[in-house]
UniProtKB/TrEMBL annotation:
Pathways involved: Amino-acid biosynthesis; L-histidine biosynthesis; L-histidine from 5-phospho-alpha-D-ribose 1-diphosphate: step 9/9
UniProt-annotated binding residues for substrate: T248, Q270, H273, H340, D373, E427, H432
Species whose genome carries this gene: Oerskovia rustica
Residues that, per the record, bind NAD(+): Y129, Q193, N225
Residues noted as binding Zn(2+) in the record, renumbered to the chain: Q270, H273, D373, H432
Keywords assigned: Amino-acid biosynthesis, Histidine biosynthesis, Metal-binding, NAD, Oxidoreductase, Zinc
Family in the record: Belongs to the histidinol dehydrogenase family.
Gene3D superfamilies in UniProt: 1.20.5.1300, Nitrogenase molybdenum iron protein domain (3.40.50.1980)
Record's protein name: Histidinol dehydrogenase
Length: 441
């Protein structure tokens, strides 16, 4: 069912290790070639392109590109109370964690009258993408909206693919989650076209509502499939983005004490997102590797989305990797840089402390990834495709800029004047020194 890679007895350099590790056949770069014309089309033709592209990719031509406000409140009124309770609990926990994330300003006195301060300023307007192709993601509304709200962003717009079953509007629970969080600007636009709309803005007309206008945003965040991730990569520079949060990945570092059924179910849970999902088990225990493989053979056919899961788990992006020991296991998970990493070993907290690269780490047998997907309080929008080596999951920082503020007195500047002039002249930029000297002549 799932590929096996045996690294026992092999001493590999980080580069060799990276080459051996499972990765998907089609990456963000390949998808970028496909989405570049979509972005171009949206930039040139605005609302009419958005409608045409929805028809082509989502199988529905939305009547309202901008969701009417009354449809948001109606979705909340008809929301199943149990689901509402779950969403509200998730909002509470995610808000508590994100409020604690706000970085503090600071001020440093370098000499009498010489001060450098740093403060954090939220971006003004953000576009939050909420996936809705194979599955729909009200939980992603919470992750993105709460993080932006806790950062202090004033204008929030959400976009999610139009659903044939909901008159071409996004899924009702997505609309209800927006209403719960007080978001009123919601678009029935999905995929790369939504990213283009946020990056460049779009105008046009709505058949029933008159003029259509989506103003460009400063930052686009949110998860999505490979096309969404590619579109975000292409508009970076026009706008800011969070990490590339593409097709889901789970890696599990487990020893012989882990429960093979739980490990198998955790791998399946993330395989359920998409055939492109990656599931990787890293273990020094040959017995656990065999037991998990056997459990997958039994459990995959029983799960609701068996075909999707089977494709994900048997693809080149998924594998069971057998290692010599936990030391080598840590090298493997660090080289892989998974979106989610579960540690299911003895002394899991100590092992987790040693991990250097992962989007989020889930420690011990009772912190499975689906807990974080919905309600742990952590954010589930996380870097994929190795981006965890250099970027973080979504958080208030994704919407903030650090600005340094410099304030020196005359005496404090004079104390440095000769040294500034010397360095400026050495750079052959003497006007810099002149600007300083003039103040003391
Ligand atoms: N990394 C994370 O933080 C995270 C979190 C949640 C979900 N996810 C991932 O988000 C993804 C959701 O994917 P999805 O497909 O269900 O929804 P989606 O909303 O991301 O993508 C649907 C859109 O893809 C576009 N599309 C489909 N086929 C296309 C093609 N051939 N060319 C161009 N565009 C095309 C369509 O416009 C459609 O609206 C999954 O891969 C899931 O694993 C990741
Ligand atoms: N596992 C996904 C992140 O890759 C998040 C999610 C939302 N709903 C269920 N799961
Ligand atoms: Zn998930």
């Amino acid at each position: 069912m799932i590929n096996r890679i045996d690294l026992r007895g092999r001493s590999l350099s980080p580069r060799e290790l990276t080459e051996i590790l499972p990765r998907p056949e089609i990456g963000v770069e390949d998808a970028a070639e496909k989405v570049a014309p979509i972005l171009h089309d949206v930039r040139l033709h605005g609302a009419s392109a958005l409608r045409d592209l929805s028809e082509r990719f989502d199988g529905v031509r939305p009547v309202h590109l901008r969701v009417p406000t009354e449809r948001l409140s109606a979705a909340l009124e008809t929301l199943d109370p149990l689901v509402r309770d779950g969403l509200e609990e998730a909002i509470r926990r995610v808000r508590t964690v994100h409020a604690a994330q706000r970085p503090q300003p600071f001020s440093v006195d370098l000499a009498p009258g010489a001060q450098v301060r740093q403060r954090w300023i939220p971006v003004r307007r953000v576009g939050l993408y909420v996936p809705g192709g194979i599955a729909v993601y009200p939980s992603s509304v919470i992750m993105s909206v709460v993080a932006a709200q806790e950062a202090g962003v004033r204008e929030l717009a959400v976009a999610s693919p139009p659903q044939r079953e909901n008159d071409g509007l996004p899924h009702p629970t997505i609309l209800a989650a927006c209403a719960l969080l007080g978001v009123e600007e919601v678009y029935a636009v999905g995929g790369a076209q939504a990213i283009g709309m946020f990056a460049y803005g779009a105008t046009g007309s709505e058949p029933q509502d008159g003029d259509f206008l989506c103003e460009p945003v400063d930052v686009i965040t949110g998860p999505g499939n490979i096309y969404v991730a590619a579109a975000k990569r292409l508009v970076r520079g026009v706008v800011g983005i969070d990490s590339e949060a593409g097709p889901t990945e789970i890696a599990i570092l487990a020893d012989g004490g882990a429960d093979p059924t739980h490990v198998a179910l955790d791998l399946i849970s993330q395989g359920e997102h998409t055939p492109d999902a990656a599931a990787v088990l890293v273990t020094p225990s040959v017995e656990l590797a065999a037991a998990v493989d056997a459990r997958l053979v039994d459990l995959v056919p029983e799960t609701k989305h068996a075909a999707r899961v089977a494709q994900a788990l048997s693809g080149p992006q998924s594998a069971i990797i057998v290692v010599d020991d936990l030391e080598q296991g840590l090298d493997v998970v660090d080289s892989y840089g998974a979106e989610h990493l579960e540690i299911q070993t003895a002394d899991a907290a100590a092992v987790a402390e040693r991990v250097q690269s992962a989007g989020a780490i889930f420690v011990g047998p009772y912190s499975p990834v689906p807990l974080g997907d919905y309600m742990a309080g952590s954010n589930h929008v996380l870097p994929t495709g190795g981006c965890a080596h250099y970027s973080s999951g979504l958080g208030v920082h994704s919407f903030l800029r650090a600005v340094q503020v410099v304030e020196y007195s005359a005496d404090a500047l004079q104390e440095l004047a000769d040294r500034i002039v010397a360095v400026a002249n050495d750079e052959d930029l003497p006007a810099h020194g002149e600007a300083i000297k003039a103040r003391f002549q």
